[in-house]
Amino acid sequence: MKMTFRWYGKEDPISLEYIRQIPGMKGIVSAIYDVPVGEVWPMEKITALKEEVEAAGLELSVIESVPVHEDIKLGKPSRDRLIENYCQTLRNLGKAGIKTVCYNFMPVFDWTRSQLDYRLEDGSTCLIYDEEDIAKMNPLSGELSLPGWDSSYTKEDMKQLFDDYAEVDEEQLWENLTYFINKVIPVAEEEDVLMAIHPDDPPWNIFGLPRIITTKENLERFINLYDSKSNGLTMCSGSLGADRNNDFVDMLKYFGDKGRVHFVHARNVKLIGDKSFQESAHLSEKGSIDMYEVVKAMHSFGYEGPIRPDHGRMIWGETGKPGYGLYDRALGATYLNGLYEAVCKSNK
Ligand code: DNO
Signal peptide span per the entry (predicted)? Predict the structure, then answer.
């Protein structure tokens, strides 16, 4: 496995220099943030990002994400132009030598939480998802905002989106995803780009909107939409592991053996009740995911791709983007590297 770290570009308070000082850090996961969703990422912006990362002694390993426009997920007539733009962005990335692209197909909302600064017993804070609090949230109020969401929607846009999605159930979303995959994967193949869809977070429907990248069965259905190595997965332990019916380690091994795992997000979650969870420290004993088993699984299928410590808690007084501080993610990376070294050496 290759250790990487998410970096939000020049706006990120965490510098590339600091990231490089984390032992074993090899690569950066980033994106172009100032091109509107649906437009082509210009080659100059891609190469500028790549050069900046390389000048800091790191590699630009993964793009997370090239976002998919809502009209594509909704199957609107404008999708053809938007998919063509998406393909052109992939060509540009491929030509620039960036070969792994993460994206998701979640309607309207990316990852969703009910609280960003839940205080744990040790005084650190973390993101949580509380099913009852979520049930009380009204996405049409115009007041909700989370770090993972596109905040550019007005109240009216949101109302329109919800009206549009009223016509899209899970099967229709599968159809729209299939249409997208059939156009995009051949281009990814030509460019040797590995596409890695991110599971829905959390992996169940929210606010009445359909979500489909959620379970082993659905991931299987997904990879079978297009039989190509380029049509792969981001295995995110925190997202899939939030559903107690998902056995994350089993899923990781299963799809890893099929050669479809191209990116791993390691995050621990402590499951509370049926559909509620806290994001915990990476250490196995702090959450419901056994990270040792996760690393063993990756080793078992000879995983050489990128992995990143996903959300961390806020510790040591750090402030900033919830889930994306330096300290706890650096501890996570170090812990994962330690597990990996031990697993490799004990299998010699
Ligand atoms: C959360 C991330 C997600 C992820 C997208 C991928 O922190 O794992 O926001 O980047 O879902 O498209």
Answer: none
